[in-house]
């Protein structure tokens, strides 16, 4: 092992108590990170002050604005890769490891793959390049192998990334802000020839823990209105990712399916259907006009449209 083997950074935004719990679980791992960096998107100093009190050895970067998981990811990866760390955990403030030996198992798996491995994690899937949808990894696939190669590891699924790939310019796209920035990053790694691998045992254990061993695709369901803002980013950013990778069939599939879902949601009432349709139309419009500076956030129904 080198002197700079493994570091971690956590992107946070106005959740200091949740962050402290995640930090504790990261540091209590059987193989904890040699350096912990907090990328602070907060609009106040609550997190900075709490870190100084509880974890004074944690490095801290105050971004100065909410850069999202994408912008914070770019800052954290570039900072630690330039410092020479071979492996880097990219985490959100509510993404603690699932077991005490999660990091140890993933890093051992990464080493077994050698220089071709660009990323390891717990949960991952392959991408259907015709529809733009993820193909759910079958239980049988996980049961028949120790490690499984996938196309993407979602945010929150313990993404540990090879620092050398970051030094080659493979970084998150900051303008995506939130949603599918992980898929965009992972497809960039794949294009560069890196393998993305998940640990089958950890994956299966997590499915059992969440009682998801027999989950099947479900019908369109009504979401709570407080989370509808996420759909804006999902639609806008997925269109960007499909076009960037020249998955044009998937691009139009996502476009038409999003419009169709908007219409179907009127079955939950005119007001609800209108909210979903407005989000969809805004997402398509802002993608087409490259309005990446627009922000739709919970509790803030009026978008921020001022360019930075």
TrEMBL record:
It comes from the Bacteria. Gene3D superfamilies: Spore Coat Polysaccharide Biosynthesis Protein SpsA, Chain A. Residues 9-155 form the Glycosyltransferase 2-like domain. PANTHER family: GLYCOSYLTRANSFERASE, GLYCOSYLTRANSFERASE 2-LIKE DOMAIN-CONTAINING PROTEIN. This is Glycosyltransferase 2-like domain-containing protein.
